[in-house]
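Quick one: structure for this chain?
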Amino acid sequence: MGHRIPLHFHIRDQLVYASRGVMTVSANHGAWVVPVHRAVWITAKSAHTIAMSGNVSMRTLYLRPGLADSLPRECCVVNVSPLLKELILHACRIGSLRRALAWQSHLIDVIIDQLQTIKAAPLQLSLPEDPRAVRIANAVLANPSDPRRLGQLARTSGASGRTIERLFVVETGTTFGKWRQQVRLMEAMRLLGGGANVTEAAFEAGYCSSSAFIAAFRKMLGSSPTQYFRDPAAGYGPRIQRRR
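Got it. Here's what it folds into:
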């Protein structure tokens, strides 16, 4: 892991676009991996940190809260179309945009129109809050390749495996097994962003083979890891359902 921006927040909504490298954003009992050519939507006053994997370059749009009302009032990773990418880069070259200038007002409207159509990518990791489940989560996050089953991990938590499973379902919205697979997928993406090849990333993240990693990646994101990192349009799919 490379440079890290410490905990902070902004009074405006922000769209942080990864033009190179992979970012990991942590906020509000969750974490989001942001691969190259994608962005993370961070709502106003959400305290967060940003960690860089490899050589990272990013661009940020700051928006008045409520301006992009189609986007959720919670953090999420979003796909960025080639047009929106160019709009982000162009706006960042200009600096602050003002409605008083007609051409800048038009540019703002086009950006907002594009924001209305972006789709979320399933790259979020919800974190449990119960101390017993937190101990298990921290152990997995510290070593995603740990092969121990839930029953073995639960012995260090002061709760049974059945209790830990129930806590994960209630507090993260998914089973422990699926939650750990998400940890491994996100760890592999961070490793790829840091320069590892697919085989290295797969084994270090805990997959039994590179083909298992590629299959899991394709199932989640709709393309192979190589295509996803190379092609900004790869992996576009339906908007993920958010927990209510």
